[in-house]
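Session log. Operator J.P. requested a structure for one protein chain; no other inputs attached. Running the standard single-chain path with C-alpha cell output.
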Amino acid sequence: MMAAPAAPAAAPAATEQPALHLYSAGFSTRSAENQKKANARHVLIPKLDVVAKALKKPLPALGLPCGLFAVFDGEPLASEHCAKNMHVQLLQHLAKIDGKVTDQVLKRALRGAVATLDQ
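Structure written below.
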C-alpha cells in the first residue's frame, strides 16, 4: 500500500516591512592618531518596547520587533551623553505620535530626538 503524497507546504504569510530602515555609512576626517582614541559610544537596545514599558512611556503601534542602535562619535563627554540619553529622547518623541505611524512620522521623531540631544 502506498502512502498518500504529502500536502504542499503552505505559503509563508506575507510579512510587513518595518516602517523605518536606517542605513548609514561614514568616513573620518581625523588623523589616524586621533582615530585610535576611540571616542565613539554606542547604544544597542534590541527590545525598545520592553524599555518603554519599564520607563512607563507609551509607544505607538510600531510593530515588533522594535529596537534601537546608534553610534555617536566626537568629543568623549558629548558622545557619552548622547549614548546614555538617546533612547529617552526617542521614546519621548515617539510617545507624541497620534494616528498612523508612517516612515515620515518616524523620521520626524528620530530627527527630533537627535536635535534635542544636540541642544
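Operator note: Helices lie at 32-35, 48-54, 76-95, 103-117.
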